[in-house]
Design goal:
13% strand; 408 residues; 12 strands; Aspartate Aminotransferase, domain 2; 14 helices; 7-stranded mixed beta sheet; 3-stranded antiparallel beta sheet; 2 domains
Amino acid sequence: MTEDFHRIKRLPPYVFAEVNRLKASARAKGADIIDLGMGNPDLPTPQHIIDKLVETVSKPRTNRYSASKGIPGLRRAQAAYYARRFGVKLNPDTQIVATLGSKEGFANMAQAITAPGDVILVPNPTYPIHEFGFIISGAAIRHVPAGTSGEFFNSVERACRHSVPKPTALVLSFPSNPTAMTAGLDFYKQAVDLAKRLDLIILSDVAYAEIYFDGNPPPSILQIPGAMDVAVEFTSLSKTYNMPGWRMGFAVGNERLIDALARVKSYLDYGAFTPVQVAAAAALNGPQDCVTDIRNTYHRRRDILVDSFARAGWEVPPPPATMFCWAPLPPAYREMGSVAFSKLLIEKADVAVSPGLGFGEYGEGFVRMALVENEHRIRQAARNIKKFLSEPPGTIDNVVPINQKASL
């Protein structure tokens, strides 16, 4: 048993692992790393949600097995959210499944609908589970360059013409992690029309639908007439309510696909802990001013990062949505590549970011920065980067790391 198992062999080395090891090593040596790498919210969960959890966990019956597809009250709360936010009517019994975060839901949907050798169309760059959930399930992936223009749909059509077997599903994700790209209803209408013509399933990830800054709130693909025939959509409470560790999300949409997901999940889990589900329903049904406050916090952080990094010498495009900035490498470092540059930022500037290559080959030349440090720490990151960028790239190996300079 010296050879890797079949499914493990299909997974490439985790691009982020080397950067994460370097970050951990620097911290072990006493470095104060400003971590803009992982999209792990630093803000507290709103108090009324915590209070509902505490109230519910004290009731002995809630310690028993829960419902795999979600307790009825939680599914009704998600249906109410879709009705008021998107104007979409959902049947809580047949069109909604509660998931252990959108990531688990997406991966188990891949298990439910994938036969070995199926071809799945995935945008590139994209969040890794959009690709690897299907790879683990035995599918083959065909990438299409991420975008919202007509060329995106042309790429999908070409892929369907030239792939054997013909692709069975198309992944969409707006607002996008990592690029923060957004899409409107016109885009979704074209996507639904194309899916029906090409007999494709659409899996839409809208985990960041409530974190937006400019223009109108991001729409749902299910707002398009006929979308329910071909699409399932994934949402999450992680970023909307600062509940990432609670692992609560949803899949909603086409009844046949939702039923397939529910059947797979029934063999794998008993659902989230009931008090977590009750608290999640309280989040969806309760006051929503906390969502506005969370959105405004990310908006302020975005503006501070874009402004302070520009003054440091690094132009970062302001994202219209999500908690991420998708930044091209500074010109002097573009030949280096995103992984080497990310390692260098840790070593020389005490700042951690995510290399764009980790989100797909077309992410090379970029890094993703998460708005998960407070405003003071973001300004400190900009000061560190300004010192870093002031050194000629050719002599960068001779630069003393900033955390060591403080002790000189």
